[in-house]
Amino acid sequence: MPSEYERKLIEMQSHIRENNAYLDDYMKDLNSWTDEIKKKEENLKTKTTNSSISTAKDLPPVRNFIEPAKPKKKSKKKSDSKQVQNTTSSSIHAYDYRAWDKYDVDAECERIDKKDEDENEDENGGDDDDDEANDEDEEWQEEVLKKKAEYYKECGNYQFKQKSYAEAIEFYTKAIECNPISPVYFANRAQCQLFEQRYGACEADCTLAIQNDKNYLKAYYRRSLARIELGKIDQAKEDLEYVLSREPANVDAKTKLNEIIKNDEIKRLGRVYPLHNKPLDQRSTKPLKRIEIQEIDTSIITPSETTKKKNIVIEEIETTEMPTFSEPVPILPVPTPAPPSHPSSTSQSEKLPPKLIIIPTSIPTTGYQFKRDWSNLNNQLEQQSIYFNNIPPTSYKTIFSTGIDSSVFSRILLFWSNKTDIDEYLINSMYELRQTPRFNTQLSFLGSEDKQLLQTTLDRLQTNSLFSMEKIQKILHDYKTD
Fold this sequence. Notes:
This protein is mainly α. Helices cover about 65% and strands about 0% of the residues. It has helices at about 5-55, 75-90, 95-100, 105-125, 125-160, 165-180, 185-195, 200-210, 215-230, 235-245, 250-270, 340-350, 365-375, 380-390, 395-400, 405-420, 425-435, 440-445, 450-465, 470-480; strands at about 290-295, 310-315. Helix 6 (about 165-180) runs antiparallel to helix 7 and helix 10 (about 235-245) runs antiparallel to helix 11. The protein is flat and about 145 Å long. The two termini are about 80 Å apart.
């Protein structure tokens, strides 16, 4: 049996171990908590920096304009005060008789005379200082106006991004009032005028911008757009040609110039010139001919022939002399058509054979070729099924790289359901088609008829055991519509 002392020692050791274990657990929890807080703080910092960068562009400009500090004028009071201090410091006390003995009266008089002369020179030179101060004030005012103009331009840009063009025009006008030399403010206001369909004002602003800077190409392009709307096609063409001469790679100017050229060709080719514009030497010298037009009576035509167009007989009468309007025009007798016989009616009722559609033999390699060939088949079921069966299933990914169209997918489901026997091509095509992009979305938006067609094909696959079951199981799993 251990003594009481030993028993107390053992209890003390157990308490110390328990305290150490508790302390370790507490420190672990504290360290994990600090790590989590640090991670959260880093995430918040990154989020705030990203959000500040992203929203800095969308924020409106500062509402209050901060005026720059006015430069201080140079004053000569300090130098005068220093001289006064020197004179006061060098003054002699009344009780200092030895200093008065050494005091030089003539030197002090010369010093006072020099001081008066300096003051007179300062008064005469004050006008020059005022001129320099006025020049500094003008420079400072110009700087203030330029900064105000930039501030109003930023406000206008913000309103332009918000698509409030009327307010943007007001801000750009204030910027022009502060700095009427800059072409940017006129061009920006012209862009707003263009969106507001004020084409005359847009043209005027662009002209003012070009007067300030002849090399500002944006003003030429915007003025061409306004002139197109105003009907000044030739002047707009000149602006676009000037832009392309300076920037040959300008895509917008190229497209607008091509549109103008095409419209000019259409107007030129489709224009009808009146006869009176032709000169006399170019007119025809042949005598005019009078043409008599007679219509056949359609009352005696059988009902089977009513679907035909009305026959019009046009006969030309060659006459050397033109009849006057007072002379009666001879009317030719109307030929009565013979009653139609039965074999002729049957031949007329026969329909023309349908137009043959040639199935493309070349296998498509891109989605564009497939769409072109598919549309050329004119929704003919047999031709489309033959064309689709000629495509190897392994090329579905490249042909349908952007996804399969819903109408094409429903037609493919019809092809599969019409097949009586399940072959390897059907299994491979179903297996490869499920790997095309956005297949699941097409499957989820199927109609009730398409779902029934798909279900009949899947039921046939379940009963078939001749082909690999792995592919069939994957097809059954991926083609579920429930």
